[in-house]
Amino acid sequence: MERNNLQQIVPFWNSAGQIIPHRLYEFFTEKGIGNFFTDDSNKKNTEPVIVKIVGNTVSPVNVGYLLDLTKSYILEATADAGNSGPILDSLHTKTALFGDKNLKLLKTIKLNFISDTPDAGYFFFQNGVVEVKADAISLKPYTDFEDFVWEKSIVPVNFEPVDMVHLQKESDFMRFLEDLTVVADAEKSAKRLDSLKSAIGYLLHRFKDPATTKAIIIMDVYVNGQPNGGSGKTLLIKAIGKVRIVSILDGKKYDQREWFALSSVDLESEILLFDDIERNFDFEQIFPLMSTGMLVRLKYKNHVFLPFERAPKVAITTNYAVLGSSSSHIRRKFEFEVSATFSAGYTPRDKFGHNFFDGWDDQQWNLFYNTMFHCLQVFLKFGLIESE
Fold first, then answer.
1. DSSP string covering 132-160
2. % the chain with pLDDT above 90
3. Residue 245: which of 324, 331, 306 has the closest Cα?
């Protein structure tokens, strides 16, 4: 806190050093702190999240942060006079001010977040907001936007657009996608590459269209009658998690009939991955989640329902074809079978000479982000492109 800002805030204690509760809460308001209801339409049955706003950025904060902020301000505001003792004593005796019931008295803040539109997707970096449209990728300053962004969604690096020719020559991840789609026929390989790009783009696009409620199913190709494990399908979803918030459930253990089956899912998730599902996975179990919304039952807390437009998109990785051939199943499935380029005996590390992500330098990271945004462009331009 800069010293010149101290004069802008009315002290929250009286001449005797006693903390005045309503002034303390006015201090929090001046600091951009308040309660945010994730489901504004259902305040009666949801608990607010305490957040702090700085510019366009929103971050959740806890009671420990509020106590530290309060103590730090007291010490700094009284540094010259040296009379912090009585005020700190008052703070120690009034910790009930930071209890659950009192914290409900924080100012309620209504927030609108920067969201994707039918023809654009937005990604957040420390040097600005990347707007991806079918025909252009542009970097814009945060000041161009009135709405907000969660701090955890901001990638802490600078982004620079790269042209497609450079991307195809230099990007490890672009070559990885080519490896996942290659077959003997070059023309079919090109079509499969476009199909996979469109599937990635669909998952990256946060706009939810009720007319397109697909689960992106990434499957292994069969080699000698056996599924080809280690093919890179989980690495593919992990890559999406570098630019979107992904929650992962163990596909072998998931059972919708369990009361708290979704309790571990991050409520801010944009993609929900059922990883490595069993051969007999009941795909129909997740129809409501895909088309209606997601009910998250939480232990010792109020349950949360995320409506369709806020519920995450669904991805599945599997060694098997997903059962179900009815029209309901077909219209909810987008299946892609990865090529057998990689296996447990030949990994991307073997080909590229380093691990993905933790083995990349700044240039490869920037090429990766550009590759992902190119995938979104393919989806925005052509929609989901079916593969054989």
1. EETTEEEEE-GGG-SSBEEGGGEESS---
2. 57
3. 306
- Give the span between the Cα atoms of 217 and 27, in whole angstroms: 50
User: What pTM was estimated for this model as a whole?
Assistant: 0.83
Q: Where are the alpha helices (DSSP H) in the chain?
A: 21-30, 63-77, 85-93, 100-103, 164-170, 172-181, 186-204, 233-240, 287-291, 327-330, 348-352, 362-382
d(CA 57, CA 145): 11
Six token digits for residue 99: 């209890």
Rounded Cα–Cα distance for residues 299 and 308 (Å): 23
Strands 226-227 and 222-223: antiparallel
* Rama region for 100: left / alpha / beta (φ>0; ψ in -120 to 50; rest): alpha
Q: Can you spell out the DSSP letters for 74-134? A: HHHHTTTTT--HHHHHHHHHTGGGGSHHHHTTSPB----B---BTTBEEEEETTEEEEEET
Q: Is residue 338 a contact partner of residue 158, using CB atoms and an 8 Å limit?
A: no
Nearest-angstrom CA–CA distance, 180 and 218: 11
b/e code 154-183 from CB counts within 10 Å (16+ = b): bbeeebeebeeeebeeebbbbbbbbbbbbe
Write the pLDDT tens digit of every residue in 99-133.
Answer: 999 999 999 999 999 999 999 999 999 999 999 99
330 alpha-carbon distance from chain centroid: 27
Any residues with CB less than 8 A from the CB of 86 and at least 6 apart, and which?
A: 16, 17, 18
Query: pLDDT tens-digit profile of 345-360?
Result: 888 888 998 889 988 9
